[in-house]
Design a protein that fits this description.
The complex is a heterodimer. Chain A is mainly alpha-helical. Chain A is about 75% helix and about 0% strand. The chains are: A mainly alpha, B mainly alpha.
């Protein structure tokens, strides 16, 4: 009988796929809003990026302009300066500041009083959750000529300094502020690696008569090697970022020339000056190089340490 | 446990850690103290004082009756509440679908989402979309433009994947559909994960100043962080809130604008402080789920 034959024959893979899709249709419906969101608010902007090759017209069709805007970028002396600012600030935040979070985690672990340690932890995580506007408000206030920092230096007979408008100080301020904001939060990954260390390793070191420094050197640091490698490599992926929100909120006319970074520049020429095509071209360059950087660091880190960005 | 004697190094360590904590606590207490001090005495306060000089609620009365500030606070609350609910609804339902191991095209969808996470098309291309959709100067612009964060979605998936598969199969055998399994098994069992991403989203929503700043043009639509940013960046508190708005206060002449700014900072921090105990309970586990697994 035909019916029986058909049932016995294994269904084609195409038919099986269709059946499976139909069975899972609720799942795809649950996914749909998210996918639609990304298509509208991410894929559509990606299509809009072609503006980098066009002159913008508000009401009419854009006019093809070829590489004009890219040539403008590379010919502009401004571009080199902004790229340098970005790389310097990134270096300070992602490389110079890097050991501070590791050291803080080690110090937390060294604290004998659990109560005090927990208090320090609770306090140190808090700045991470404050908005950049609030953080800028706090720091600008602290560094004001009548603020807390100048009150303290006055005790040592120093004349008040306007730190926020000092070109030589501002990049260090950005770095310190980033350290202040992330000290607790960014040390969590190291602290959890430390508390995961097998107790018996400490006991063995104790039996061998190791002192605290030797224990840190031979027991704690080896356990931190993997998270440190991961975090360091991943940091390199964000080198073109340098912290848009921080710069945007803490900058002022006196110091902007030394802390103007790619993202703040793109924001200014794009939305403040309305040079849409130029801003898009620059955003495209940054987006492509940035994505390649993050992908490279992710793959490298995954190979070396087993963990990456996701 | 043996009581170890307090060594010099332990005392030194404790002092250093207390000092570090003070750099975080003192500025906040100073801001609070100045905001509740009596206005004519607060102007001369130093940045190190953490006790108020007298007590006055004038700054807060101004904030909660000012025709610019009060609506901005309400707008912030509205955007945070509706925005976060949309964030969580979309993220958890997508995460549930993607945590089904046998979902067809799962891999392709994940690759798509990760590209979306990594590649940033930039400001202007997004701005043009918001304009084209007619969302400018509506709260929907900021709510919709950040509807799903892929990183939080992946964190949520990790939590759902940790729910025992046997429960899923048992529910399936009992004839439950995906929506029921999602709502009655996954959401309750992965509530630590759902709470975590809920707070991630809520904090980001409340703290956002950038998109509200570029998409919400009129002062009746704007948010607290945007106004606060104008206070801090331009420093011109009086013109932003409108000096004429202060005339109704008898004490108008005495207003200390720095203290008023500080009071606004306090209002901007309070929701974060309310969430903070929950943050401490759930966040650390969220960081682990995201950073450690694969």
């Amino acid at each position: 009988m035909t019916n029986g034959l058909q049932a016995a024959k294994p269904k084609s893979s195409r038919a099986r796929k269709l059946a499976k899709l139909r069975a899972d249709r609720i799942l795809y419906l649950m996914l749909a809003p998210t996918l639609v969101y990304f298509i509208i608010f991410r894929v559509w902007p990606i299509i809009n990026m072609r503006l980098a090759f066009y002159d913008f017209k508000a009401k009419k069709a854009w006019v093809f302009a070829g590489m004009k805007y890219f040539n403008t970028i590379f010919a502009s002396p401004q571009f080199g300066k902004i790229l340098t600012n970005t790389l310097i600030i990134s270096f300070m935040k992602y490389v110079l500041l890097f050991p501070v979070f590791v050291i803080f985690a080690i110090l937390l672990n060294e604290m004998r009083s659990v109560r005090l340690r927990k208090t320090v932890q609770v306090v140190s995580y808090l700045p991470h959750f404050l908005s950049w506007v609030v953080i800028a408000g706090i720091w600008i206030g602290m560094l004001d000529t009548t603020g807390a920092v100048n009150q303290l230096t006055a005790l040592f007979g120093q004349a008040p300094v306007n730190y926020m408008t000092s070109k030589s100080a501002i990049r260090w301020i950005l770095m310190l502020c980033e350290g202040w904001r992330s000290l607790g939060w960014d040390s969590i990954v190291y602290f959890t690696a430390i508390i995961a260390i097998d107790r018996s390793l400490y006991e063995a070191a104790d039996v061998d008569g190791a002192n605290r420094l030797q224990i840190i050197r031979y027991v704690v640091l080896p356990a931190l090697l993997v998270p440190m490698t991961t975090m360091f490599i991943l940091n390199l992926g964000y080198f073109l970022n340098a912290g848009f929100d921080q710069v945007l909120n803490m900058t002022n006319d006196s110091v902007n020339s030394v802390i103007d970074i790619l993202d703040t520049y793109i924001y200014r020429i794009g939305l403040e000056k309305g040079q849409y095509s130029l801003a898009t071209a620059m955003g495209m360059l940054k987006g492509i190089v940035g994505t390649v950087l993050v992908l490279t660091t992710h793959v490298t880190s995954k190979k070396l340490t087993g963990s990456g960005v996701w | 446990m043996l009581k170890k004697k307090l060594s010099v190094s332990q005392i030194l360590l404790a002092l250093v850690m207390i000092l570090i904590s003070l750099t975080m606590v003192v500025p906040l207490l100073n801001i609070l103290a100045r905001s509740i001090s009596v206005p004519e005495r607060s102007a001369s306060m130093s940045g190190l004082e953490i006790l108020p000089r007298g007590l006055s609620s004038l700054n807060y009365q101004i904030i909660f009756s000012n025709p610019v500030l009060l609506p901005s606070i309400l707008n912030s609350i509205k955007i945070t509440v509706i925005g976060t609910l949309i964030n969580v609804a979309l993220t958890t339902s997508a995460a549930y679908a993607l945590s089904r191991r046998d979902l067809m095209y799962k891999k392709a969808i994940m690759v798509f989402l990760i590209i979306m996470m990594l590649f940033d098309p930039g400001l202007v291309p997004e701005y043009l979309v918001v304009q084209k959709l007619g969302l400018m100067n509506t709260h929907w612009s900021v709510i919709l433009v950040t509807a799903v964060n892929v990183y939080y979605l992946i964190i949520c998936m990790r939590y759902f994947e940790a729910v025992p598969e046997s429960l899923y199969e048992a529910a399936l055998l009992d004839g439950a559909g995906h929506l029921r399994i999602f709502a009655q098994i996954y959401l309750p069992l992965a509530k630590a994960g759902v709470a975590t991403i809920f707070m991630f989203y809520a904090v980001v929503r409340w703290n956002d100043y950038f998109r509200p700043g570029i998409y919400l043009l009129s002062s009746s639509k704007t948010t607290l962080q945007v106004i606060l940013r104008q206070f801090i960046v331009s420093g011109d508190t009086a013109s932003i809130i409108g000096a004429q708005n202060l005339l109704s206060y008898n004490e108008f002449a005495k207003v200390d604008y720095t203290a008023l700014k500080n009071a606004t900072i306090v209002v901007a921090i309070i929701p974060i402080l309310l969430l903070y105990p929950l943050v401490l309970k759930f966040y650390t586990s969220g960081v682990m789920a995201g950073a450690v697994k694969e």
